[in-house]
Amino acid sequence: MSTSTSIIAAIIISFAVSIILCPIFIPLLKKMKFGQHIREEGPQSHQSKSGTPTMGGVIILAGVIVTSLVFIIFEKDYQIVPILFLTVGFGIIGFLDDFIKVLKKRNLGLTEKQKMIGQIVVTAVFCVYLMQYSENGTNVIIPFTRGAEWEMPSWLFVIFVFIAVIGTVNGANFTDGLDGLATSVTIVIAVFFTAVSAGTGMEPISAALVGALMGFFLYNVYPARVFMGDTGSLALGGYVAGIAFMLKMPFFILIVAFIYLIEVISVMLQVSWFKYTKKKYGEGRRIFRMAPLHHHFQEGGASETQVVAAFAVITAILCMIGYIAL
Description:
This protein is mainly α. 69% of the residues lie in helices and 2% in strands. It is built from 12 helices and 2 strands. A two-stranded antiparallel ribbon has the order 1-2. Helix 1 runs parallel beside helix 7, helix 4 crosses helix 5 and helix 6 runs antiparallel to helix 7. It is globular. The two termini are 26 Å apart. The model has no long low-confidence stretch (mean pLDDT 93).
């Protein structure tokens, strides 16, 4: 099967799975009362979303898994396996988090310690694969150097993998805060990785994610009829980190997934500054109106659709820059 045919087939299969499952799975989630619990400290406009079915990330994962298995079994595209492992591995952590939330009807699922242990374990397995079984070794491509590679020292590479993978995963998680935001941003990123992975045998899983997200987006766009939950957002971060490392392009995450990065940074800055000022002045102060960053703009008067569109356009521009940086 040619590269272009593989990409088209993967998009069609995953889109079909997603578009078929959404009208079946969403009513089931409603029947089981698997609704989202909205934090009281969040935007007031979001309180009306309480009860919206969550865990829709299962649909995205189903599209990606089915499509990937088709290509692994029939096309022998084994390069997909490590990326699929990271995607599903983090998706399972997110699923457990979501399930506990809906089961106990609260906004807290797994504890921070439990989440971190799970993320470390999944990342460690992936790191062992990269170090011991991948032909890439510790080589990474440096952006804007016409493909020049740097063979990182093993000790530094291990640290880098953990920071990059876990950082990307949590960045995707923070980005999932508005209807269609994480979905639209990641569609653009997945299109980028589909293009740059063409001919490597890894393009089917990227194309599969594009198709699955396109189908899911029809139900996740404002006003959302379903949320992806941590099941979806952690899985998306796992995919981005996984394919970036498999393509020796982890530094490109800083470019094409800049929205993930800035969302994490905004939370870190907000929390750090609040704690510092509370300790020094006795009263916590904020840098942003609300964090993550998308809430800052929303609290400033921008609508959800405006913020989502702006972030998606910014990501598209950054992906073009990332392509030029190859």
